[in-house]
Amino acid sequence: MSAEVALVLLLVPVAALAQTPRVVVTGSLAAAEHRVEDRSVGGGVEISAGTLFGSGVRVSVASRGTIALSGRTGVLHPGRGATLPRDVAELGLDGALTMHPWFDVLAGVRVRSYTTMLARQRWTTPYLGAAARVPFAVPGLRGLLGITVHPFASVSGLARPEVAISTGAGIAYARGRLDVQLGYAFERYDFARGTVDERFEQLSVLTLQVQVRALGRPVP
What we know:
Number of strands: 11
CATH topology: Lipocalin
Number of helices: 1
Strand order of the largest sheet: 1-2-3-4-5-6-7-9-10-11
CATH class: Mainly Beta
CATH superfamily: OPCA outer membrane adhesin/invasin
Distance between the termini: 30 Å
């Protein structure tokens, strides 16, 4: 995982580490749906859904860079086509560099596991991406847009996905030390496209996140 950590740290100039940081603490509640279609075994689409709880901390250095560490966990209960509940655990290391007041370049890595009573599957997804903030007429209110690609994603027990992409959109309101965000994120992974082992997975998550500035200047 050292290569992914180095990728994140590249977004933050070393000289900026001496600056006084801005520290933001986050907590989140999310409704998630996981869909799997494995055409090598048939059976159609398996659907699991549940609630995820998360927390994290984000540290800003200088005026342009941020590094964040986050985690979330929960249980996805079996729905149509699925038979077993899945415990989900995820850790993320995320970096961002502000290129314009409304635009960030992103890099990071997420490590996620799905665990049932029979097996555990581990996902490691380094990513590169971009995020935009769209201000509205109401002070403190803004729209959020983002897209990331995962060119080096790996999944235990499977070949690397040929397509691995995430998109997101949301709305946020900031006032004083508090920032509240409601966002929708969608992840899509395609494996062995056009073969008898073709497999598609997607994860959609609706998240309510609260951020509290614990130290430093207001959240931009």
